[in-house]
Structures are given as structure tokens and as C-alpha cells.
Amino acid sequence: PEFLAAAKGASQAKGAVVVQALRRADGDALVRVGFTATRKIGGAVVRNRAKRRLREAARAILPLHARPGFDYVFIARGGTAQRPWA
Questions:
Q1: Nearest to 1, CA basis, from 32, 44, 39, 38
Q2: Is 43 left (phi over 0), alpha (psi -120 to 50) or beta?
Q3: Where do the DSSP E strands lie in 1-86?
Q4: Most buried of 16, 27, 48, 52, CB within 10 angstroms?
């Protein structure tokens, strides 16, 4: 249900990833993050590789840019697993 709720928040597509963000109304400053990849981008191996890359990117970026009290969902798009890391 939290993934579906985040879809109602702000969304930004950049390259091979879509980021959805939703401010929670629970007063908790915790930042929550989720990752998803549909079968449209490939088989299980490709989806898992794409999610691993998204997790590592989030690990590097969120401490610098995440806002307290928000839920973020990173959605892999076609080519996420094959893009250059930079």
C-alpha cells in the first residue's frame, strides 16, 4: 500500500529511473525507500541487477538530498541495468 500511495506524490523521470516522493503525514522524520522493476525491463536476472544498481545509487544520493518524513520509490526503466554507472 505504501508503494501505491507514493505513486500519488511527486514523480520525476530521469534517464533510466523514475523517482516518486510522497510526504507522510505521520510526523515521523524517518526516510523510507522502496525499489521496483517490472517484467517489462527483462527477466529476473536483469530486474535484480537493476534494483541492485538503484539501491547503490540511493545509498550514495539519499543521505545528501532526502527530506525527512518522505517516502521514496525508485522505479527501474529499460536500460537501468546496462547504463554506465556515472
A1: 32
A2: beta
A3: 10-14, 17-23, 32-36, 70-76
A4: 16
